[in-house]
Amino acid sequence: MPSEAPLIGVTMYGREDRKFSLPEEYVDSVRRAGGVPLLLPPGESRLARWFESIDGLIVTGGGDLEPDRYGGDTHDSIYMTDPERDATELQLVRDLAASAMPGFCICRGMQVLSVALGGTLVEHLPDEVGESTLHRAPPREPIKHRLSIEADSLLGAVSGETQVEPFSWHHQAVRVPGDGLEVVARAPDGVIEGLQYPGHPWLLAVQWHPELSAAEDVSQQRLFDELIRQAAAYRKRGQASP
Does residue 105 carry a catalytic annotation? Predict the structure, then answer.
């Protein structure tokens, strides 16, 4: 890998059994695109140091945000809440939104982005939209479903598709997008599946899991490919950290 390859920060899951972890597909997707992944564990308070080092950021999936973070209600289905991870990622995303660094937020990451900018979440989708479209398989497994992307959006331009069928793995979703965020993709049941931030040079968010099918699905790998291209350009410009 040449030294010019961009360094991509990838957020990690919280502490469990004295370990931090992350599914390998995130790392593989970054490497296929030509980036060098740098894993970012929650709990770091010196976020400016991360921003000095990385050229792009991926905010990954995982457990639910604590409802207090967005003024939501408790629900029996809420799982894997992690105050340490919430605190780290919410501040990290606020810094990202205030910078020119390219960013890609996935599943929980999209929810973090929205909440960081003042948005709210649906606590449990089946309670509000039913199960005509399954967003995860019982008891808690990934499943594919079709979704529509706005053709004239940045997300549509990057993926090269307006209809895709990626893996979905969530029971919550954005209810009210955060300030400045634009809805650019939806599931058949109306659930918000994609956001972009027009006030930022390149900041995309998807509710699905592109990393799970990126090795076989060109439209999903393109999302990582373009992030790395944007990160390489950012590195070359020598943008300052927020």
Answer: no
